[in-house]
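Subject: Protein record for review, amino acid sequence with backbone structure tokens
Category: Structural biology, sequence-to-fold work with a learned token vocabulary.
Format: Residues in single-letter code; tokens as whole numbers, each standing for a residue.
Body of memo: The sequence and its backbone structure tokens, given next.
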Amino acid sequence: MQIQVHTDNNITAREDVVNLVQSTVEGAIGRFSDRITRVEAHLSDTNSHKSKGDDKRCLLEARLAGLQPFAVSHEAATIELAVAGATDKLERAIESRTGRLQDR
């Protein structure tokens, strides 16, 4: 499973941010790694000139073998919370999609 991290102009892709995303995603969906070809994380600051509210966004796009790619996103006050929220949503979405495949 390959994990790519992309950021907008307002968030720098420091090594600690990349490691945070990779470790969080691998920890949550690592058990599906044989079915997942790639996960792309897009981090952005939707309200860059203000620091109030839930303005950090994490969009995770997953590509499962043999299926169309799909995406989930989460907005929060910090990058860490946004990544955690999006990862939870991604885990549920993958469980749902793989569960449907097994039911067939």
Remarks:
- The mean pLDDT is 89.
- Residues 45 and 60 are 15 Å apart (CA to CA).
- The chain has one domain: 2-103.
